[in-house]
Design brief:
3 domains, OB fold (Dihydrolipoamide Acetyltransferase, E2P), binds zinc ion, Rossmann fold, binds guanosine-5'-diphosphate, six-stranded mixed beta sheet, globular, 14 strands, Ribonucleotide Reductase Protein R1, domain 1
């Protein structure tokens, strides 16, 4: 039977089958071997299962993924093999990523937003939506002005108020029938928005996003929450803790949508866009074709990436 993984916990996978029933599955032996070096199965994966008794089964095959959000998790090697990087898949086949911030209280953390966007661009997710909540605290024009650069670079930005019920219908329509990553810093109103969309939904997602595994292992519990309208949501701890460490410093400029178009016009192919002569990115900043704030953000993240790689 075909199905897809909606939950993973301690080596078990909950698979929603074509019959809409949930099967608790383990990986078949061959896949289990492959799973030593990478996550062959994760939430969102489309799988073929062999059913057994009592709603259990075995995952026989995993279909190729259309998008992957992952991070490199360091593991201690077995039998003296040394430490190795193992790809940890946080979610497969997500169709869109929704990053929620507040217009005020808390002030938008644009550097965090930029990191989320880098992660979204790298993962091959089709659609990225920025939600700006709490627009009742400042007026709409002021909210729009804060995020204008992101609209200009082609991102969909939705303005909402979970307090007044503004923009909820638009958000519901965006979520309907799709697999979405839904995340953002705490206090911006994610829980309130989700509760508005569907009673109890905020609490369900929050419980998962705050779950933590005991002991030394990296948090692995992850789950997709089903929407009444059709579609699924994920906000696993892994997503929130995700940093951009898996991005090579040299590829970072390709994930800044507003910077990327200029990169190929720089005189030097390996231009870092800091002090090199003939840098088209710096020229674009001077001509206000790239916002200063985004350029600063790129410089800071690039610096952090270089330091992280130097430590390796
Ligand atoms: P989360 O941590 O992102 O899930 O945020 P919550 O949904 O728990 O909301 C954090 C606080 O912001 C709560 O006190 C909410 O009542 C408040 N809040 C949420 N949405 C809005 C909004 O649209 N406008 C205003 N003024 N307050 C909001
Ligand atoms: Zn340059």
């Amino acid at each position: 039977m075909q199905g897809f993984i909606v939950k993973e916990q301690s080596g078990f996978f909950w698979v929603e089958g074509e019959d809409h029933k949930i099967y608790t599955c383990r990986l078949r032996g061959r896949l289990l071997e492959e799973a030593q070096s990478s996550d062959v199965a994760a939430i969102g994966d489309r799988v073929t299962i062999l059913e057994a008794e009592d709603q259990t089964g075995t995952i026989e095959a995993v279909a190729p993924r259309t998008s992957v959000i992952s991070r490199a998790a360091r593991t201690e090697g077995n039998r003296g093999a040394g430490a190795a990087e193992r790809e940890q898949v946080i979610i497969a086949n997500a169709e869109q990523a929704i990053f929620v911030f507040a217009a005020a209280a808390p002030e938008p953390n644009f550097r965090l937003l930029d990191r989320f966007l880098v992660m979204g661009e790298k993962s091959d997710i089709d659609k990225i939506v920025v939600v700006v909540n709490k627009i009742d605290l400042i007026n709409r024009a002021a909210s729009e002005a804060k995020f204008a650069a992101y609209v200009q670079m082609g991102y969909t930005v939705l303005y909402t108020s979970a307090l007044l019920g503004i923009g909820i219908e638009d958000l519901r329509a965006v979520l309907k029938d799709r697999i979405s990553v839904f995340t953002g810093p705490s206090g911006v109103g994610k829980t309130s928005l989700l509760n508005f969309i569907q009673p109890g939904l905020g609490r369900a997602v929050r419980e998962i996003s705050q779950s933590r595994q005991e002991g030394t292992h990296t948090t692995r519990d992850s789950e997709l929450v089903k929407l009444d309208t059709g579609g699924y949501l994920a906000d696993t701890p892994g997503i929130r803790q995700l940093t951009v460490w898996d991005v090579e410093p040299e590829e970072l400029d390709g994930y800044y949508r507003d910077i990327e178009p200029f990169v190929h016009q720089c005189r030097f192919r390996d231009c870092t866009h800091r002090t090199e002569p003939g840098c088209a990115v710096r020229a674009a900043v001077e001509h206000n074709e790239i916002s200063k704030a985004r350029y600063q953000s790129y410089l800071i993240v690039r610096e952090e990436l270089e330091q992280a790689y130097a430590l390796d």
